[in-house]
Structures
1.
Amino acid sequence: MNPMLSLILIGLSSATLVACSQSSTSDPISESKEAVSPKSPEEAPLAAQGQEAVTKQNAMETSGNDAQEKTEPEEEEQAEVTTKPKGDSKFKTIEWLDLMPKDDLDALMNPPEYITEVEDGSLEDQISNQLTNTLMAAADDRYQQALTSTKVIKEMDGKSIRMPGFVVPLEFSDQQRITQFFLVPYFGACIHTPPPPPNQVVYVNYPKGFEVPELARPYWVSGNLKTKLVANDTASAAYSLNMEEYEPFEEVVY
């Protein structure tokens, strides 16, 4: 399988109480009543007070158990709230494949035989990356065309979106903060490996600048998306975005 294709195709008891029967000729309830029954009129008030105390204690325990049961749903509800996206609600979260036209995706999902028959990492694979792809691109090869496609989803133009990706720095401020960069779907793109298709690269502008301690760490990027082609010596991007917000990437759990 071609590594480019693999990289591109990156969006919570109740206890049962069992009563055991006992065989006995005596009545345990009667014996219990006799043991606690007062033997004289003077003992009656004391017994009544004791019984009242027991009743109050049982009521307090029952009330405590009810309160504990009522707090459990609140804890579960709070857990659900903390897993929602942190981004502003005005930004719609999208995935990378939302930016790729269906015909390009279909072409990449169905590579030609010369791609599927090559073993990854082999010498033939290396030659394929350097020579075969170039020769085939000159022919009517939809797979190769999809790898370099600048076709976009027109409906994405002007949308306020939020998407994850890795930063490829392009321009820096005097304070060495990143002001322009390519957002790509996998680490190493445009640096250690060939760039993704242009419709899988977003050119991002952020004049304020920000620091990225580790390029291997992905970020959520939010802003207004444009279907504008930007190209330089590093790569070509079929989309551009004016970034308004960013935050370290954390996978959203629904």
2.
Amino acid sequence: MDLSYLFNDNNGHVSSLASHQNSIGSKTYFARLEVKDDEGDTDIDYVQMTVVYSSYENKKPIAVAKVWPAKITRDHAILYFDSSKSRDNDQDGKEITKIRWDFDGDGEWDTGRDLNDHWISFKGNENISVDLSYIYDNMVSSLGSSSQYSSKSKIYYAKLEVEDNEGSRDIDYVMITIYY
């Protein structure tokens, strides 16, 4: 005896006859089930199906770059870069796992090694001190005598990128002024 099963919404395909959505992340569908055997006998029943869904989505982490002091001078070129306020907004233990910095704004990552694409662990590297005197020296040497340009300044942006344990990334910039 052959049996055929048909979920029918009177249009020939599966569809909800009625549904309601509740606040716990599920949707209930009611479908009509019609069973017909090869002798033409039929029986009809209604089936309730509940589909549970998750409202979870991977949210991007938030990079927060800070620097102090935010200036480089002839006498002071050690800057302190801080990423400690960076955070991941996901729930259930999601967190930022790695960071990388372009301290001098040249477009090249300055942390880590090229081997690991310059990423370093976030934990333990939230605050990094960097001597950027070479930026001042390069600026002055390209302009000539530093006394001639003592009242000039130039702005550049250092870049921080963070990555969470799901691979999502975010970037923040911090402005640094070079006085020469």
